[in-house]
Structures are given as C-alpha cells and as structure tokens.
C-alpha cells in the first residue's frame, strides 16, 4: 500500500464523507449487516496480500441503509474513475468507485469511510467476496470477485 497506490479523488467523494459521518459512532466490529446468506466476509487484498476483512453477518439499521440510497442518488449525477467520467454509471462503475474509495480510506485509516464503503459494497453487491487491487504498470488494477454459487 505504499508507492504507486494513487487513487483519484474527485468532488463526488463528498457523499461518502457525509454517509461516513453517520457511521462514526460505531466501531467496525459492531456494525451489523442485513444480508443473510453463507457470505460472511468481504476481504480486501492489496498486491495479493489480505489487508482488511469486513464481517457482513451483522445487521445495520434501516436509517443507515437510507444513506446508501443517498450514495446511489448522488452517483446518479456522474462519477469519475481513473480520469474517465461516467455520466450515467451502472452498478459495476458504482461498485468500482466505492471500492476505490475503500482503498483510499484503508490507506488513511479512516474508519468511518471504511465502514460506509463496506456497507455499500456488501449491500449493493451481496455476492462480492473479494476486492483485489494490484499495482501494475504505474497504475492500479481492480478485480471484484463474486462468490461462485453452485
């Protein structure tokens, strides 16, 4: 997570900060999430090393879920990923954008943004089990891995 992990921020990040403020009173371990399945963890890997694990077995209150809706609404105005503007981002663009913000929050040890980002990823893409980020050719390569259900 040292040199080379440069993630572009743009002004669309403000909504993550707003949502994150709501999560500040909570410790990450105390946030419970409402997705009930065999999926219990969301693991973040940087350069193939596990750096963070989010337990989604917990339940989050409805009022906090409303702010995930606000995140979606704010992203409807467009988001920028690696310098490219997506005026009408689809769910994959949104997931990648939030994952990028999660990586930046991990770098900065910003617990509130980490919690908000993990809540968004777990709720909006319930099959997501891994966020993988690798330095490659001076940039970052993101791989979002969904659980394969058989």
Outline of the structure:
The chain has helices at residues 14-23, 62-75, 91-108, 111-124, and strands spanning 41-46, 49-55, 79-81, 84-86, 128-136, 139-146. The chain is of the alpha+beta class. The model is unreliable at 1-15 and 23-38 (pLDDT under 50).
Q: Can you offer a commentary on this structure?
A:
The strands form two sheets. A four-stranded mixed beta sheet has the order 2-1-5-6, with helices on one face. The protein has a two-stranded antiparallel ribbon with strand order 3-4. 37% of the residues lie in helices and 24% in strands. It is of the alpha+beta class and 150 residues long. It is globular. A hairpin with a 2-residue loop joins strand 3 (79-81) and strand 4. It has helices spanning 14-23, 62-75, 91-108, 111-124; strands at residues 41-46, 49-55, 79-81, 84-86, 128-136, 139-146. Helix 1 packs antiparallel against helix 2, helix 1 (14-23) crosses helix 4 and helix 3 (91-108) packs antiparallel against helix 4 (111-124). The protein has one domain (11-146).
Roughly what fraction of the amino acids lie in strands? 15-25%
Low-confidence blocks of residues: 1-15, 23-38
Number of DSSP-assigned strands: 6
Radius of gyration, taken over Cα atoms and rounded to an integer in Å: 14 Å
Distance between the termini: 34 Å
Total number of helices: 4
Shape: globular
> Which strand order spans the largest sheet, edge to edge or round the barrel?
2-1-5-6
What's the pLDDT, averaged over the residues? Answer: 78
Fraction in helix = 25-40%
Largest sheet: 4 strands, mixed
Order of SSEs: HEEHEEHHEE
Query: How many domains in all?
Result: 1
Helix/strand-derived class? alpha+beta
């Amino acid at each position: 997570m040292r040199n080379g992990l440069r993630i572009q921020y743009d002004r669309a990040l403000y909504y993550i900060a707003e949502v994150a403020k709501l999560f500040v009173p909570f410790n990450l371990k105390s946030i419970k999430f409402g997705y009930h399945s065999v999926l219990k963890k969301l693991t973040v890997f940087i350069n193939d090393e596990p750096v963070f694990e989010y337990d989604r077995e917990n339940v989050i209150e409805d009022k906090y879920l409303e702010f995930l809706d606000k995140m979606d609404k704010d992203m409807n105005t467009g988001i920028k990923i690696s310098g490219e503007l997506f005026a009408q981002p689809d769910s994959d663009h949104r997931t990648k954008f939030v994952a990028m913000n999660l990586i930046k929050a991990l770098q900065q040890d910003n617990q509130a943004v980490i919690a908000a980002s993990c809540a968004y990823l777990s709720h909006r893409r319930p099959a997501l089990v891994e966020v993988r980020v690798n330095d490659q050719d001076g940039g970052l390569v993101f791989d979002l891995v969904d659980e394969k259900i058989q």
